[in-house]
Specification:
heterodimer, A: 17 helices, B: mainly alpha
C-alpha cells in the first residue's frame, strides 16, 4: 500500500510492505516518543504530589482508551463505564483482603468478571440501535452502585473498604510512588499499543468498513454485532484493570467513586479529546484529570451542570466551522439519510 | 405470601406502574415524532414533582400546583427542544443520545442547586384515611394516581386518533416527508410533541410525589424504568407503553415481596435485558405504530 492510498484512507492505515528499522521508527515515532516521555518522568520529577497525579492519569488513560475504541471505532456509547471500573476495584479489593489473592491474580479475575457482564449486556443490546446500549449501560451503572451500597457483608456499604494491599508481585513490592508509576504506565502503554494494533487489524478494518456502509460490509461477511460486542468487552476489561490499579494505589475504595457522573466525565473527556483516532484518548485523559480539579476549586456542585452544557454545546456546535469535532465524528457512525451532504453544509461555509 | 399480601403488592404495583406508564408514553411520543430517545425523560418527571412541591410551599392550592407544574415543565421541555434537539434532528443517533444526556445532567444539577439534596413530600390530594379494598388497604392518593393516569391516557388516545392535529402528528410519525408535502409543519409537530411530553411527565411527577417523595436524584431511575416499560410494551407503541408500565410496576412490586426491597430497582433492569434478549420488539411489536 503506498502513501497516497494510506492518506486517502484518512485513518492510520497499515503499511505492511514497509520494512526496515527506519520505517519502523517512523511509523511508531509518536508512540515511542509518548512512551519514553511518560516512563522517564519519575527520573526527573521530584515533587511527589505531581507524580501521584500523573500515576492517576495512567488509569484514567486506560479508561479513556477503552471508551475511545468503543465510541470512535465502534460508534457505540457506554454511559456506565465507571460500573466496570467499580467491578475491577471492588473485585480486586475483596479478593485480596477477604480471600488472600495475589493482587495480579485478583486483577485478572475481576477483569474476566467485567468482560462477562459486558458480554451479557452487550449481546442483546448491540444488535439494536445505539440507544439500547446507552440505556443498558446507564442501568448497569445504577445497579452496580446499588449493589456496592447494599451488599454490606462484602462491600462494607457506603463506608467503603480499607486495608487493600499495595501493588506487589510475589515478594516484590511495587507500591512505592516511582515503582507504581512505572508499572501502571507500563500496563497502560501496553493496552494502548494493543488498542492501536486492534484498529489496524481485521477488527479495526471491519469496523471502518461498517462506518462506510453497513449493508455492504455485512454482505462481505462481517458480523457487525459480534465486532461491537468484542470492542465493548475490551473497553470493559480496560476499565476494570484501571479500577484494580486505582484500588491498589489508593488502598481505599467507596461506592462514591463509581457513579454515573464519573462515567459521563470519562465520555465527555474522550469526546473533547477527539474521536478520529485513538490518540484523542491522550488529550481526553488530560481533560478528565484536569477539568474536575478546576471545577472542584470553583464549586463542586456545578460539575454536572458544566458537563451537561459542554455535551450539548459540543453536539450542537460541532456541525459548524469553529468546531471540527463533527467533521471528525462524521465518518464514525452511519447516517440515516445516506452520505449526501446535508443542506447545511454549504450554508455554514458562507458564515 | 398470603392472598391479602398478594393483593396489597398488586395494588402498590399498579400505583407505581401508573407513573412508569406515563413516563413510557413520554418516551413513545418523542420517539414516534423524532426517532429520538430522550434520556432526560425521567428528569422531567422529577422536575414536575419538585415544581409541584415548590408551588405548594408558596401557598397555592393543590389543583393549582398540578396545573402550574404541568405548564412549567411543558415550557422547559420546549426550551430543551429549541436548544438541544432541533439542531440535531438530522444528525446521528449518537449525537442525539449525548445531547439529551447532557440535558438530563443540566436538569438534575439545576434541581439540586434550586431545591437542595433532600427528597420532599407533597400532601395527598384528598386526605390520608386508608380505604379498604377486600382485606387490602390503599391510601386515597393511589386512586388519584391510577384515575388521573387513565384520564391522561384516554385523553391522549382520543386526541391522537380523532382530532385533525393528532392525525397530522401521526402522519409525521409514519413519514415526515409525505406529511410535509401535505402542508403539515414538521417543526411545529416536534415542538408540540415536546410540550405534550413535558406536560405528561410533570403530571406523573406531581401525582406520585405524595406517595414516594421527590428528590433531585430520582429522575435517572424513573427514566430507566419508563424506558424499560416502553421497551417491554414495544418501543413506539403507545398502547404497549401503558401496558408495559403497569406490567413492570406489578412485577416489581411482587419482586419486592419475594426478594427484598433493597433490590427493587434492579428488577426493572433485569426485565429490560430479558426483553432485549428474548423479544426486542416488545410485547406489542414496534411496527403497530406505522399502521395506526
Amino acid at each position: 500500500m503506498n502513501r497516497a492510498t494510506a492518506a486517502k484512507g484518512g485513518t492510520r492505515a497499515p503499511s505492511r510492505s514497509a520494512g526496515g528499522p527506519a520505517a519502523f521508527a517512523r511509523r511508531h515515532a509518536g508512540y515511542l516518543v509518548f512512551a519514553v516521555l511518560v516512563m522517564t518522568i519519575p527520573a526527573y520529577l521530584s515533587n511527589m504530589y505531581y507524580l501521584s497525579v500523573l500515576s492517576f492519569a495512567a488509569t484514567r488513560f486506560m479508561m479513556a482508551v477503552g471508551i475511545s475504541l468503543l465510541l470512535g471505532q465502534a460508534g457505540q456509547i457506554s454511559l456506565g463505564q465507571s460500573a466496570f471500573v467499580g467491578i475491577g476495584a471492588y473485585g480486586s479489593a475483596i479478593l485480596t483482603t477477604k480471600l488472600g489473592f495475589d493482587p495480579g491474580v485478583a486483577l485478572v479475575v475481576s477483569a474476566i468478571l467485567a468482560a462477562a457482564i459486558a458480554g451479557l449486556v452487550g449481546i442483546p443490546t448491540l444488535k439494536l440501535k445505539g440507544y439500547y446500549l446507552a440505556m443498558a449501560t446507564l442501568g448497569i451503572n445504577e445497579i452496580v452502585y446499588i449493589l456496592l451500597v447494599q451488599l454490606k457483608p462484602l462491600t462494607n456499604g457506603t463506608d467503603g473498604l480499607t486495608g487493600i494491599p499495595g501493588l506487589h508481585i510475589g515478594g516484590l513490592d511495587l507500591s512505592g510512588p516511582r515503582a507504581y508509576h512505572l508499572v501502571a504506565w507500563g500496563v497502560a502503554l501496553l493496552m494502548f499499543r494493543f488498542a492501536l494494533n486492534l484498529t489496524d487489524s481485521r477488527v479495526g478494518r471491519s469496523l471502518r468498513a461498517l462506518h462506510r456502509s453497513e449493508p455492504a460490509a455485512e454482505s462481505l461477511g462481517i458480523d457487525y454485532s459480534y465486532r461491537k460486542v468484542q470492542v465493548f468487552m475490551i473497553a470493559a476489561v480496560f476499565a476494570s484493570i484501571a479500577g484494580s490499579f486505582d484500588a491498589y494505589h489508593v488502598q481505599f475504595i467507596s461506592p462514591e467513586s463509581f457513579t454515573i457522573t464519573f462515567s459521563i466525565i470519562l465520555v465527555t473527556g474522550v469526546i473533547i479529546g477527539g474521536l478520529r483516532s485513538l490518540w484523542g484518548a491522550v488529550w481526553g485523559t488530560i481533560v478528565i484529570v484536569i477539568l474536575p480539579e478546576i471545577l472542584k476549586r470553583v464549586n463542586e456542585d456545578f460539575t454536572n451542570l458544566v458537563f451537561g452544557v459542554l455535551l450539548i454545546g459540543i453536539m450542537v456546535l460541532s456541525g459548524s466551522k469553529r468546531f471540527d469535532l463533527w467533521g471528525q465524528l462524521k465518518g464514525v457512525w452511519p447516517r440515516r439519510r445516506g452520505g449526501l451532504p446535508g443542506p447545511g453544509a454549504g450554508v455554514e461555509r458562507e458564515e | 405470601m398470603t392472598f391479602d399480601q398478594f393483593l396489597q403488592y398488586i395494588l402498590s404495583g399498579i400505583t407505581s406502574g401508573s407513573v412508569y406508564a406515563l413516563t413510557a408514553v413520554g418516551f413513545t411520543l418523542v420517539f414516534s415524532a423524532t426517532q429520538i430517545i430522550n434520556f432526560a425523560q425521567g428528569q422531567m418527571v422529577m422536575l414536575g414533582g419538585m415544581m409541584g412541591i415548590t408551588l405548594h410551599e408558596a401557598g397555592l392550592p393543590l389543583w393549582a400546583c398540578f396545573i402550574g407544574a404541568v405548564a412549567v415543565v411543558a415550557i422547559v421541555s420546549v426550551g430543551m427542544e429549541e436548544i438541544a434537539i432541533r439542531p440535531l434532528l438530522r444528525k446521528g443517533v449518537l449525537t442525539q443520545i449525548i445531547a439529551t444526556v447532557g440535558a438530563s445532567f443540566i436538569f438534575e444539577t439545576a434541581a439540586m442547586l434550586i431545591w437542595g439534596r433532600d427528597a420532599k413530600p407533597l400532601p395527598p390530594f384528598t386526605g390520608e384515611t386508608p380505604i379498604a379494598i377486600g382485606r387490602a388497604t390503599v391510601v386515597p392518593q393511589t386512586l388519584w394516581v391510577v384515575g388521573l393516569s387513565i384520564v391522561v391516557v384516554v385523553a391522549l388516545t382520543i386526541f391522537y386518533r380523532k382530532s385533525l392535529y393528532g392525525t397530522a402528528i401521526r402522519g409525521c410519525a409514519v413519514n415526515p416527508e409525505a406529511a410535509r408535502l401535505q402542508g403539515i409543519s414538521y417543526r411545529r409537530v416536534v415542538v408540540f410533541t415536546f410540550a405534550l411530553t413535558g406536560a405528561v411527565a410533570a403530571a406523573a411527577g406531581v401525582m406520585i410525589a405524595p406517595i414516594s417523595f421527590m428528590g433531585y436524584a430520582n429522575g435517572t431511575m424513573l427514566g430507566l424504568k419508563g424506558f424499560a416499560a416502553a421497551t417491554l410494551g414495544g418501543l413506539g407503541n403507545p398502547v404497549g407503553a401503558v401496558l408495559g408500565g403497569f406490567l413492570l410496576g406489578i412485577v416489581e412490586a411482587l419482586g419486592v415481596g419475594v426478594v427484598s426491597a433493597g433490590y427493587k430497582d434492579a428488577i426493572a433492569f433485569v426485565i429490560l435485558l430479558l426483553v432485549l434478549f428474548l423479544r426486542p420488539a416488545g410485547l406489542m411489536g414496534a411496527k403497530v405504530v406505522n399502521r395506526q
